[in-house]
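Good day; I would like, with your permission, to put a structural problem before you. What I wish to show you is a protein chain and, alongside it, a tokenised description of its three-dimensional fold. Thank you for your consideration; the sequence and its tokens are set out here:
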Amino acid sequence: MALAFSFMLQIWLAHRQTAHVIEHRQKVPKSFENSVSIEDHQKAADYTVAKNRAGYLQSIVDVILLLVFTLGGVIGLISGFWSEFHLSPIVTGVATILTVFVASHLLELPLSVYHTFSIEERFGFNKNTPGQFAIDTGLHLLLTLLIGGLLAALILWVMASTGWYWWLIAWAILVIFTLFMSWAYPTLIAPLFNKFTPLSDRELDERIQTLLERCGFTSNGIFVMDGSRRSGHGNAYFTGLGSHKRIVFFDTLLNTLEHDEVEAVLAHELGHFKRKHVVKMLVTSSAVSFVGLALLGWLVGCEWFYLGLGVLAPSNAVALVLFILISPLFTIFLQPITAYFQRKHEFEADDFASIYAKPATLISALVKLYRDNANTLTPDPLYSAFHYSHPPASIRIANLTAKLENPV
């Protein structure tokens, strides 16, 4: 029942989005008439519709895989296969978990290939090559096996050795692991996929340093990422914790925006830091994982949990896999709440940016990013309430425009 409801909800929302975008394809919204051409507006609409239609197929594939792995008995078969080798319970469990997730990834790989080399290619965004795509895929899988395997082994050991309250210890491990990865990712993992070079534009660097001083922000460097190796999309972000904080600009973004616009975008990103949005999201995710692991701590001892999902031979590893696979069916109903607070954070970051940069400059930067990334200007309100972490373009621009009329 949960699977059917979740699937129908996703399809219905996607249908609303497609219909709404097509309905407004022929006319640029009034607030963008002077900044976005009808050709760019229609490209964004067509790109959104193409991704949505691919999303229908993705949803169908996800449902089929879930049914095959659970009620179809594949998880039980995989667990039984590794049990035949008479390895230790932890090694057998890790092998079972990794086999399920690697198999799922490989089965969904054709859709990823289609998205990259068909949709992204058709709309002029793909810069990737089959060779680079294969290398990235292999590296992702290798990291999953190494990092995921070590984490899974530790969690399984805790489940087997620490009694009924194992889930509390496992939760503490996950929190520590999340913090460690946030700290280590910029310097240990990200460089495996992209090249990061210090910002070489002296004038821009000086402007950024001045802005950082005004905002009271220190970082481990300002870097340019070679995003153009794989995609024409532009972006900027903060990453890392503590002394490993980095400011990263996609080279595509720097090629699109003027210096004052880059400064405005950075001021927005600084707003996330100064308003402690990263900390708030870490605390929220920790709270959600606490509840989830507490629930799993109860379910792991319930025979109906396994039998109802097609598994006849319960184990800690199987419980973990089943819980991870089915939890999205229920957490989808939390998406509007999560999206609401994410959009609230974006408004707060825009408000902060309006103090340290000109609202008009941030508006012009955002319009360029909407246009160059082919982001639709006319999303369906209900769809965006579920899926948009950023406010729809018209609402966000209106909020910034109001600051022009009523400056802080």
Summary: The chain has a mean pLDDT of 90. The longest strand covers residues 246-250. The beta strands are 196-198, 222-225, 236-239, 246-250. The two ends are 51 Å apart (CA to CA).
